[in-house]
Amino acid sequence: MAVDNPSTGEIIARVPSMGAEETNKAIEHAAQAFTSWRKTSPSERAYILRQWYQLILNAKASLAHIMSCEQGKPLTEASAEIEYAASYVLWFAEEAMRVQGEVLSSANNQQRLIVTRAPVGVCAAITPWNFPAAMITRKVAPALASGCTMVVKPAQQTPLTALALGELANQAGIPPGVLQIITGEATAIGGAMTANSIVKKLSFTGSTKIGSLLMRQCANDVKKLSLELGGNAPFIVFDKGDVAHAVAELMKAKFRNAGQTCISPNRVYVQKTVKEPFTRALVDAVSKLKLGDGLDPKTTIGPLIDEAAVQKVEAHIANAQTLGARVLCGGKRLESQRNWFEPTILDGVATNAQCIEEETFGPLVPLVIFDTEEEVIALANNTPFGLAAYLFSDDIHQVERVVNEIESGMIGINTGVISAANAPFGGVKASGLGREGAHIGIEEYLEMKYQCYGHK
Ligand code: ADP
């Protein structure tokens, strides 16, 4: 299977194209490894994970280079992602030591009630291309910390970062079979992972369409599921907010990975009274972005992942224009380079435009003007999704009112940077099931075992 550089189109590597047979072999191997891995002590697992963490950090520069070549993001962002990915490994190395049970009060004196926690078993993970390292460590680290074993299918576009992390896992002493990485055909591998009854849990990050398909496939033997799916994040700027600060945070949240993140602000709602200064400052900031190849140190925004991604941004812009929107800057791909798309701002976007109703996953900021708090809450919630939301206001009462009403798993208040290993990442509504990171991130890989002891 060829792996290309989205910036140049050059084929940079070939990886094995595996299918159902190899996936089932890996699952059997993972089941074998589980018999001994689940019996290791939490401190042994923590020690090995810390070794992996250190090796990832030591290899930061080369991992970032690999990632930038296969995914396109600028080197500084790739390097930051490696640190972020490593932070999950350290976090869950420590959480391994904090898995605890409970002794419950009993309704009578004849019984003693105890709850312990046991690893779920063999797990499978399917990950996307937008964060080729972090989406893997977020799943693998809590799985391994809890005593589970895992088979991972990285996205076809970005298998190299995954394989490099796997090699470092070997060097860290993670035993054979505990972590395996399968590259190849998505439908065949995903089909085998979901059909095989040895697999007790699937963790998936990707589109809602595929997440819901995998959920159906997992229904036969009722596998546990964690799903991190699509978002449609509103970014709300109230006139009681700091406009300059809101612009600075929007730049970080929106243009990271050229807008290809599931928590990227997809709809920007600006209160009418601050529209002028906000728009002026935003156009100014966007015009300073430097679109280019990820390996060029001057680049601040890289290419999109592929032609389909470019076409989606083009279609969203064209659709908004037919509904009356105006391009304030950008608006097109660079003729000379395949997947390079100019950072774009659209003004006067209709609330029923495609770019408001669907995730664009590209460097597009659609501006929608609103009058009242009530109006913007209704607009923000008018979506099947509920992953992230952002709001800017210095009025604490307003913040509290809006936070209470917004249907979203995560809310940034006066900040555009919300992800961290110690925080619960995940969504409500069609944005998914479960959370990654925080203490709850390891709970997702543990089953409770309630024991009721009777006295004779
Ligand atoms: P994106 O649009 O971001 O590529 P996808 O949901 O299509 O989102 O992809 C996320 C992950 O799901 C990738 O690893 C991809 O290979 C995988 N995938 C896509 N289709 C299937 C499928 N039918 N079964 C299992 N995995 C799939």
From TrEMBL:
GO terms for molecular function: succinate-semialdehyde dehydrogenase (NAD+) activity. Gene3D superfamilies: Aldehyde Dehydrogenase, Chain A, domain 1 (3.40.605.10), Aldehyde Dehydrogenase, Chain A, domain 2 (3.40.309.10). GO terms for biological process: gamma-aminobutyric acid catabolic process. The active site is at E228. Keywords: Oxidoreductase. Residues 2-449 form the Aldehyde dehydrogenase domain. SUPFAM superfamilies: ALDH-like. Its EC number is 1.2.1.-. InterPro entries: Ald_DH/histidinol_DH (IPR016161), Ald_DH_C (IPR016163), Ald_DH_CS_GLU (IPR029510), Ald_DH_N (IPR016162), Aldehyde_DH_dom (IPR015590), Aldehyde_DH_Superfamily (IPR050740), Succ_semiAld_DH (IPR010102). The keyword Oxidoreductase applies. It holds the Pfam family Aldedh. Belongs to the aldehyde dehydrogenase family. This is Succinate-semialdehyde dehydrogenase.
